[in-house]
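Sample A.
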Amino acid sequence: MNLSHLDLAIIVAYLLAMLAVGVIAERRSRGGLQDYFLGGNCMPWWLLSMSNATTMFDVSGTMWLVSLLYVYGLKSIFIPWLWPVFNQVFLMVYLSTWLRRSGALTGAEWITLRFGDDRGAEASRVSVVLFALVSVIGFTGYAFVGIAKFAEVFLPPWLTPGQYALLIVGVTTLYTVVGGLYSVVLADVIQFFLKLACCVAIGWIALQRVSAEAIAAAVPPGWMDVTFGWRLDVDWSMLMPAMQERIDADGYTLFGSFLMMLVFKGTLVSMAGPAPNYDMQRILAARSPKEASLMSGLVSVVLFAPRYFLVAGITVLALTLLRDPALHGHDVERILPIVIRELVPIGLKGLLIAGLLAAFMSTFSGAINAAAAYLVNDVYKRYVRTDASDQQYVRACYVGSLAIVLVGCGAGYFTTSIHAATQWIVAALWGGYAAPNVLKWHWWRFNGWGYFWGMMTGIAGAIALLNFPQIEPLAAFPLLLAGSLLGSVVGSLLTPPEREAVLLEFYTRTRPWGWWGPIRAAAERNDPHFRPNRDFPRDAFNVIVGIVWQTSMVALPIYVVIQHWQPVLISLATIVITSTILKFTWYDRLESA
């Protein structure tokens, strides 16, 4: 692709700005691990929320969302429940508050609060570190595939797509390593406004260039209908047979049963709390439990509506103005860069390429910074150099980050499909994560050995599944969940419970609801003024309302871009009603501590 001098200047200016961010933030990250990984717990919640949302707005995920909307239409708004995207609602309603009360630096450090410091707790810490590293390597490979496909379409053929991906990774790694969380958050905020401008621009171009009638003529019956029955009822066989083959290959034809699996899986994974990555890091970096909840709530607002203006705009332009399948070779994951290459004017093209580079860099930097926290704080500091200075630990962070990048990029070279990488991460890897991490919040008898065996069974099962590509990861989810649950329960019941003092400290500080009967009774004996958490009915209600609220924010920009104005009004009314409910049932009840 031949870019104009103006487009190239915009891209180069953006990359230089990101390097400058690392230099500016470097001084503030010198104080030690608390400063390097959590920003000293002094950043405001709205800034962390913008950073978290920007990190989730990744280029690979955006290419995947475009491919879903192109093929499945409005029903595609439910498919990202695979992650599940509504885990942010669970975090907003109660889990961010619980997690932030711990005062931990990483998820592995949180384990000490929950399980103490005996051998079982030590084993469980090791399993968390292992999961964090495996998941970040998986995410890095997933991001690497997206940026390589992006480079293949956009950038001159001076280098291979993989070499371009390494170059972009190098710039991202440099500012991430030098500045720690300060540089990540500062870069994310700059990238947020850049990506917001890109989203508005693409949505506006689609509205100006494409009519509602043209969209209706380009899609099959049922494409614009968000409702569904037992079957998908979107038939591409007459308009574009290759898209029907994609639906059949994905296995989503029985959409009703597929959605039931998503709700079941998504609820369990959401109740487990955030995986040990950038999401958990932002929660732990908040100034208070209340701000942690507010941070998670704002993520849905600043992420979904802007992102889906871009997703819908790209999809509509591709459906109506780039009908030739030869342009993307039936690889719908390449639609996003092809639309920008073919239809976006000079100047704006450079801005959009910079914005999509920002989408990659924000996700990549967040994942690497979070993973380095585990490698340094929970391995190097705990087992290798227990008495090093803060400056030595920060330098170890540089080495750890580089090691994670190298391994992750190596994994990216062996991954060919964003969809396949997504499936493995969200269905296989998180299938083994769900059971022990739900139990750790809600069952007093669950101990460190149970956590260790539950996690190790899940991780081993997910890695083993890589050897059986013919098995769909989502189909394997129940089996992985059952194996992990069995390891968790058997491992706990065959070993002694944790000491009552450890359980009391965790329970009284975190204040979860669940099966804590003996510990709750002990807490009330020790402190007659202690109030146990009886908010499960309200939290469950708020989660349901929150999912409707979040899904409406996904649907609204799509309906605007395809110019279906009655559903636009319905979506707006739903957002107003659910926001009002949450104001009284969630926001007004947030505790200050």
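Sample B, a different protein:
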Amino acid sequence: MAEPPLLALAGIRYHLGDQTILDGVDLGVAPGERLCLVGRNGAGKSTLLRILAGAPIFDDGTRFVQPGATVATLPQEPDFSGHATVADYVASALSDALGPDDWRVASLLAEVKLDGGRNPAELSGGEARRTALARALVGEPDVLLLDEPTNHLDLPTIEWLEEKLSGWKGAYVMVSHDRRFLANLARAVLWLDRGIVRRLDRGYAEFDEWSNAILEREATERHKLDRLIERETEWAGKSIRARRTRNEGRLRALGELRKQRRQQIGPVGKATIEVGPAEQSGSLAITARNISKRWGERTVVGDFSTRIFRRDRVGLIGPNGAGKTTLLRMLIGELEPDTGSVKLGANLVPVVIDQRRAALDPDKTPWETLADRNDHLSVRGRPMHVMSYLREYLFRDEQARQPVRTLSGGERNRLLLAKALAAPSNLLVLDEPTNDLDADTLDLLQEALSDYDGTVLLVSHDRDFLDRLVTSTIALEGDGTAIEYAGGYSDYLAQRGPRPAATAEPAARKDRPAAPKEAAAPPKQRLGYKRERALVELPKKIEALQAEMAAINEALADAGLYARDPKAFQAKSNRLAAAQAEIDAAETEWLELEMLREELQG
């Protein structure tokens, strides 16, 4: 016999203006259950969690909590007001707390590596998330409600949280965009779709197949209903005058069919994420040679080298504070290294998406964010109406004129992507782009980035997203070591192996993971005069070709050139293509010589 629920909702209805968010939701959470709540951005997942937590915001229905059962919540944005220290905030979850020095508080803060005496107002995003997690976990509640628990957490902390929840004795309901996290922990799925919650009593790995089958069945039923309405409408047009009285019942039935069809809301459309066409550039995007950076006495990045080519997708991973952003800024030329050099490829046009969403003004509307006061903006090289573009990213018409601060976290992230990806570029720099995005939008973003003709640099803690997208992974271990591995996160784990206890590993070449040296390096060898000379001359040749291409592009920008001299126009166009091919060949030759030189020198 199934155990009675610790927490239950019955007939919950919630409206936001004229929009139905929750339409008669029924669900229960039994002891020890491990549930994930999934659905589109804006579907109402956070609202449903708030109602489960006890917020009296619903319009109709009932909430039941078993007497004596305890419920704790991890909100997306914790409120630290009224708490002088981190320990005070964590201890506030305990009704019987002995103050901030309670052993339970101290023990959990040690697990999440936080100083209980710190002012919570001064915490970084990751530290604030760990503090809120400590507060949710400290009382060992019967039911945990977790809203995006992995946001702002680094990979080591996510893995710690997975281990903690794997051994958790109570029940939990979690909302997360992290598929690997859900697949590892959830034993049943609650799917919030168009105001209704459906339940799958299997793991998250089977959710896609199950939900797709439901949507296909609904599409078939809608098609049948549409055909029935067509037949009944045709009958009504032909027969109503002759048999008005006898057929009033059939007309009423037709009206009911139409009402039923209006109420059948189809599945919400998918966002359309496309990246602007990449500007023409050389085959070699970024070359970093023995770069290092120190902050005070601490080495953040030490002696790192890499070559990043056009169409490479490079992921950066590591603990918070390990130096991912520092390395990223050095690679794109925003920050000078203390030692070594960074060379950017020809005609590099970067677009940077910052996880802090600094590009969004909370008081502006989405319309103003994209086009200021204009009606059109340039999208992927062509003019487009603002509203049409917003609809591609699943914004409703009324949201276009509402302040950005009223949007959900996922909607704000979609708006940031829409703003950044409209512009042409050949280098995309993405710092935690997956935060708050639903699974369908993540799929579309991954597909768009895979098809992108430029280069992608990506900082992410989303293991599944990394495995699906990146061609190599730069791992920063927090001790100044940065090593590049072929493949995604799973490949990194497989290649890393046991780390040396006391020594840092040298930076690895892209095609060969670093390994501890087992013997003394052989004597250095030389390339020979001709090759050494080529290493010096090729960069000069590339710069000369780039200058020539710039002059040709300036000449071709003359709108009247073709009309005045079609042959000259064609000759310059042909020379432009040939010069680009020569640059590509020279960069490839230089790269091969440089790799050979390093090979010979060990």
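Observation for Sample B: Confidence is low (pLDDT under 50) at residues 238-246, 261-266, 500-524.
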